[in-house]
Amino acid sequence: MFIFWDNSNIHISGLEVMKLREPEQPHELFRTNFNNLFDLVRNNRTVDAAYLSGSIPPPSNQLWDHIKGLGINVQLLNRTADGTEQESVDMSLQTMMFRTAIDNISSPSTIAVL
After folding, report:
1. Counting beta carbons within 10 angstroms of the beta carbon of residue 13, is it exposed (0 to 12), middle (13 to 18) or buried (19 or more)?
2. CA–CA separation, 50 vs 1, rounded Å?
3. Which residues contact 80 (CB under 8 A, 6 or more apart)?
4. What's the CA gap between 49 and 109, in Å, rounded?
5. pTM over 0.85, yes/no
6. Local structure of 3: helix, strand or coil
7. DSSP string covering 8-75, please?
8. How far apart are CA 107 and CA 104, in angstroms?
9. How many C-beta atoms surround the C-beta of residue 38 within 10 A?
10. pLDDT tens digits, residue range 10-56?
């Protein structure tokens, strides 16, 4: 099993759900429980490799170190000057998916995209 994780898309979707379900709460309080999400996707299966692409910030390496500690390969990309995310996050995941598919063409496996 291979996992490809776009952290920004997960975070933005979580913020939107929080706004709908708990509109009285500050949506900035939303946090992703990386351990639980990773466990849910793995579903007790062996993970051959997991890749996460995200953008800087957060400025703290603590979050990224935690994710790396789960065995996830982390690729961080800079944001644009106006603070928005570049399309390079999507492109980096697409490149990782393509390389993984080519490298494992003779041994079919499951791919999960978050």
Report:
1. middle
2. 8
3. 86
4. 11
5. no
6. strand
7. HHHHHHHHHHHHHH-TTS-GGG----HHHHHHHHHTTPPPSEEEEEEEE----HHHHHHHHHTT-EEE
8. 5
9. 19
10. 888 888 888 898 888 887 778 888 899 999 999 999 999 999 887 77
